């Protein structure tokens, strides 16, 4: 039996990378997926790949009006919203003194404000059906230190998750955060990155980086009915780094 049979799931930042893999694996488990992204060209390509049980919506996750449009179009197409995966996120590899206020606020708006806007936007429909799962993709840097801007927004996502879990639990809406460590994506094969990752792997207790599917498996668990008693919690996929 498919674990997400007939569930309707919105996934942000899903035109590529981890978001696309989440969408593919959720669709394979019986879900109807709404993929959103600012990149319209890639988003439409992904929708063509995924087929009739998918919908692409061009989406600036930092825009409240765009979030209203995503919810309205999802309800018009599929009639319900069972889960939201707040996946979209960015970072800059800048030293603190080189990070401008504009850079910083862009990270805040995409990594943090979008999670607030998305959660707020889907809450009315989830309350109406007395069920829902909101899955906020944080990071291992939402548990331990990392780059300024990225780390603080990922800690904020973790705190926001707990606040919403407490408020929304009477409506049977669960809110959890996922904290991946380093995940094997094409970006890790870039010149200058691969060597750094090889060195970092030596510090990971499991001595390897995560495969994208391992993160998707956790997201699927949280979207499914298998996690009905889990809310306000951190689900960590970092190979043991945060345990050090």
Structure description:
GO terms for molecular function: oxidoreductase activity. This is 3-alpha-(Or 20-beta)-hydroxysteroid dehydrogenase. Belongs to the short-chain dehydrogenases/reductases (SDR) family. It comes from Phocicoccus pinnipedialis. The protein is α/β, with parallel strands linked by helices. It has one domain (8-236): Rossmann fold, CATH 3.40.50. It has seven helices and seven strands. The protein has helices at 17-28, 40-50, 64-78, 101-129, 150-168, 194-201, 212-223; strands at residues 8-12, 32-37, 54-58, 83-86, 132-137, 173-180, 234-237. A seven-stranded parallel sheet has the order 3-2-1-4-5-6-7, sandwiched between helices. Strand 1, helix 1 (17-28) and strand 2 form a beta-alpha-beta unit.
What is the topological layout?
Blueprint: E1 8-12, H1 17-28, E2 32-37, H2 40-50, E3 54-58, H3 64-78, E4 83-86, H4 101-129, E5 132-137, H5 150-168, E6 173-180, H6 194-201, H7 212-223, E7 234-237
Parallel strand pairs: 1-2, 1-4, 2-3, 4-5, 5-6, 6-7
CATH architecture: 3-Layer(aba) Sandwich
- State the distance separating the first and last CA atoms: 38 Å
Q: Unreliable stretches, pLDDT < 50, 5 or more residues?
A: none
Oligomeric assembly: single chain
* Helix/strand structural class: alpha/beta
Query: How much of the polypeptide forms β-strand, as a percent range?
Result: 15-25%
Taken from the alpha-carbon principal axes, the silhouette is: globular
Radius of gyration: 17 Å
CATH superfamily heading: NAD(P)-binding Rossmann-like Domain
Main beta-sheet annotation: 7 strands, parallel
Tell me the CATH topology.
Answer: Rossmann fold
Determine and state the CATH class: Alpha Beta
- The spatial strand order of the largest sheet comes to 3-2-1-4-5-6-7
How many distinct helices? Answer: 7
The mean pLDDT is 95
């Amino acid at each position: 039996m498919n674990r997400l049979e007939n569930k309707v799931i919105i996934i942000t930042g899903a035109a590529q990378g981890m978001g696309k893999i989440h969408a593919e694996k959720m669709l394979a488990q019986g879900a109807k997926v709404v993929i959103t992204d600012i990149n319209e060209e890639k988003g439409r390509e992904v929708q063509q790949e995924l087929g009739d049980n998918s919908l692409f919506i061009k989406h600036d996750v930092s825009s409240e009006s765009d979030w209203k449009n995503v919810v309205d179009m999802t309800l018009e197409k599929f009639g319900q919203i069972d889960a939201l995966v707040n996946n979209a996120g960015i970072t800059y590899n800048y030293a603190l003194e080189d990070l401008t206020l504009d850079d910083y606020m862009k990270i805040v708006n995409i990594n943090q404000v979008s999670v607030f806007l998305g959660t707020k936007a889907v809450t009315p429909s989830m309350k109406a059906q007395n069920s829902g799962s909101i899955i906020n993709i944080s990071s291992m840097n939402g548990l331990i230190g990392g780059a300024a801007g990225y780390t603080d927004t990922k800690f904020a996502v973790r705190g926001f998750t707990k606040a919403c879990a407490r408020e929304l639990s009477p409506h049977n809406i669960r809110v959890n955060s996922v904290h991946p460590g380093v995940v094997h994506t094409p970006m890790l094969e870039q010149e200058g990155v691969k060597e750094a990752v090889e060195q970092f792997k030596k510090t990971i207790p499991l001595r390897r980086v995560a495969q994208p599917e391992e993160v998707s498996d956790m997201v699927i668990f949280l979207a499914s009915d298998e996690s009905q008693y889990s809310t306000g919690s951190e689900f960590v996929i970092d190979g043991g780094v945060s345990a050090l």
